[in-house]
Specification:
There is one protein chain. The protein is of the alpha/beta class and 257 residues long. The chain is built from nine helices and seven strands, in the order E-H-E-H-E-H-E-H-E-H-H-E-H-H-E-H. Helix 6 runs parallel beside helix 9 and helix 8 packs parallel to helix 9. It is globular, with a radius of gyration of 17 Å.
């Protein structure tokens, strides 16, 4: 029996999200039932969470026609989990999104339009000066983004929004080359996409909103660590480009099933 053709895989990245994962999946299921994106599979990827995130996510499996829970193992970083999801996905297009639905589900319509025009890499972009509270955080965010634009991806005004979609072959080519497995993998992904000649489309997400009270969204990571990595990682990526590290894949995926 042939497996169904999956039009889009939605990869939900969820680490220590027991408080929201059930509600988020219920919202996603409701949205998908009222919108036509073709055949959809939902993959929840979670590193080992002590709060039972995976068990709660699995309890919502019946809401979807195609659903998989993927246990990524001990926590390494969001980049590792996203890479795993991209390779385990079966869709012609593969979207990753955060479990907190910070990017509203209405932007799935933007993804569908992107798919209809045979896009390669598509990203949501936010207004960086409006999403953070406090002048210090606004300036840190803008300054880090300027470094990213100068060193890695000129012209892309937001590299870190957790809502990005890839055509299947592009996804595997790009994610087989990433070296940064923490939260800053987004920037490396876009830098590799540029190096490989993929066209990067973007759509505005002015309604992006961080539902977490602290606005951090990175469990266990201090603000100081985030700031330091925000400045250092663009230099690492630029050095990798100069050294030719992205010319060939460095990761070989072993299917879990």
């Amino acid at each position: 029996m042939n497996e169904p053709t999956i039009d889009i895989s939605i990869i939900v990245l969820a680490y220590m999200e027991a408080g929201i994962i059930a509600d988020s999946l219920q919202q996603l299921a409701s949205w998908l039932k009222s919108h036509d994106y073709g055949t959809v599979e939902v993959l929840v990827v979670t590193a080992e969470s002590t709060d039972g995130t995976g068990k709660i996510a699995q309890s919502q499996a019946s809401l979807f026609e195609h659903f998989r829970l993927i246990n990524a193992g001990p926590r390494v970083g969001k980049g590792r989990d996203c890479r795993l999801g991209m390779f385990e996905a079966r869709g012609r297009y593969r979207l990753f999104m955060d479990a907190d639905l910070a990017t509203p589900l209405r932007h799935l319509d933007d993804v569908k339009a992107f798919m209809d025009r045979n896009g390669q890499v598509g990203i949501a972009v936010r207004n960086l000066f409006s999403i953070h509270k406090g002048l210090a955080r606004k300036l840190m965010s803008k300054t880090a983004n300027v470094a990213a634009q100068i060193l890695v991806v000129p012209g892309i005004k937001d590299t870190q929004c957790g809502f990005k979609v890839f055509e299947a072959k592009a996804a595997e080519a790009i994610f087989s080359r990433i070296t940064l497995l923490s939260w800053s993998f987004d920037l490396e992904v876009l830098g590799i996409a540029r190096q490989l000649g993929y066209k990067i489309d973007y759509f505005e997400a002015p309604d992006w909103k961080d539902p977490k009270a602290a606005g951090q969204g990175l469990v266990g990571d201090s603000q100081l660590k985030i700031v330091i990595k925000g400045f250092m990682d663009p230099f690492k990526i630029r050095l990798n480009i100069w050294a030719g590290r992205y010319r060939k894949p460095s990761y070989v995926h072993k299917p879990m099933y």
